[in-house]
Design brief:
single chain, alpha/beta, six-stranded mixed β-sheet, two-stranded antiparallel ribbon, 11% strand, signal, GDSL, GDSL esterase/lipase
């Protein structure tokens, strides 16, 4: 029965597509929606269930994860919405972007989340936790999705590329390349193979290639995020014994090298290296530093420990199955040893979506601006996925 319905939809779409081509009449997007689709790449900060079915310790498909999420426990590594969930709502999407592992048929035209907990820019990153989908594999999966979408566009590559150029792409990698690679010398040799500056350089070289592959596959509006101030997360605060700082500044200083290079990479892409592209740099380091230093002004009463976890700062062991979390999650900056709470994610989404040029955590423009130049979409999209 489902196959029959799919065939009917496909035949209907072909007729509509031909009609749209003949009349060349674009229609507006669904009310309030700025872009036709949203594709997401990253790690556990934005994974929404891709790791549920694989053998890994990096999974969150158990309570109390998702305790405040409308759909319950889904595999999101927080108590409620992730940053990209909140951003999708600000972009006007009526439904959350689904994990690629569960995206079927024409639903791919709305977008998909390819992110995987523990993943990094380098393939070996996160292997200490088990299976995961690295950025290279996420890009490959998107390539397969593009082949699938071509069928819905009668293999008209130009039409598909025009469609994808109107979509927003989000890519947030790098945290695990430091936490679960470079600063884990008992498991990885990278810290002895590379000085911090050299490691940042090789990461950026790989990342530039991966982002260029996304561009080749059709991405034009891309948000790339820097690595947050991970020397100050509960996991590090529970372990670090510094003299002049509570945070592990050795890690933070290494992160700054990567982030500086990533922002420069965005300038290169926008400056003509990838013609027609619009890249936005999301300064996660600045935003996390601001939240840590000025948390009280944003309503966060607890900024140095997880809402759910074990040991010092609730950061020595992450949130366990069926563990009782803190009562008022809105007052906590961190949900567990590594990940922000839903409130922190919502705060960042609002700040990066429409922040002004002086106070925004985005560069060179905010996210709302990158989507505003696309106010119409072909009839095909309206009929297929509205």
């Amino acid at each position: 029965m489902r196959n029959f319905i799919d065939i009917v939809l496909l035949v209907t779409w072909v007729w509509l597509w031909l009609s749209a081509k003949a009349h060349s009449q674009p229609l507006p997007l669904p009310r309030g929606q700025q872009v036709p689709c949203f594709f997401i790449f990253g790690d556990s900060l934005v994974d929404n269930g891709n790791n549920n079915g694989i053998l890994t310790l990096a999974r969150a498909n158990y309570r109390p994860y998702g305790i405040d999420f409308p759909q319950g426990t889904t595999g999101r590594f927080t108590n409620g919405r992730t940053y990209v969930d909140a951003l999708a709502q600000l972009l006007g999407f009526r439904n959350y972007i689904p994990p690629y592992a569960r995206t079927r048929g024409t639903a791919i035209l709305r977008g998909a989340n390819f992110a995987s907990g523990a993943s990094g820019i380098r393939d070996e990153t996160g292997s200490n936790l088990g299976a995961h989908t690295s950025m290279n594999e996420q890009v490959t999966n998107f390539g397969n999705a593009v082949l699938q979408m071509r069928r819905f566009f009668r293999r008209d590559v130009n039409a598909l590329n025009s469609y994808l150029s109107k979509c927003i792409f989000y890519s947030g990698l790098g945290s695990n390349d430091y936490l679960n690679n470079y600063f884990m010398p008992d498991f990885y040799s990278t810290s002895s193979d590379y000085a911090p500056k050299a490691f940042a350089a090789v990461l950026l070289q790989d990342y530039a290639r991966q982002l260029t592959q996304l561009y080749t596959l059709g991405a034009r509006k891309v948000i790339v995020t820097g690595v947050g101030q991970i020397g100050c997360i509960p996991y590090q605060l529970a372990r670090f014994r510094g003299n002049s700082s509570r945070c592990n500044e050795k890690i933070n200083n290494a992160i700054i090298l990567f982030n500086t290079g990533l922002r420069q990479l965005v300038d290169h892409f926008n400056g003509g290296q990838l013609p027609g592209s619009k890249f936005v740099y999301l300064d996660s380091y600045k935003s996390s530093q601001d939240s840590y230093q000025n948390g009280a002004s944003y309503g966060f009463e607890v900024i140095d420990k997880g809402c759910c976890g074990v040991g010092k700062n609730n950061g020595q062991i992450t949130c366990l199955p069926l563990q009782q979390p803190c009562q008022d999650r809105r007052k906590y900056l961190f949900w567990d040893a590594f990940h922000p709470t839903e409130m922190a994610n919502i705060f960042l989404a609002n700040a990066t979506y429409s922040g002004d040029s002086l106070s925004s955590f985005t560069y060179p423009i905010n996210i709302q601006s990158i989507g505003n130049d696309m106010i119409e979409v072909d009839l095909v999209y309206m009929k297929m996925v509205a």
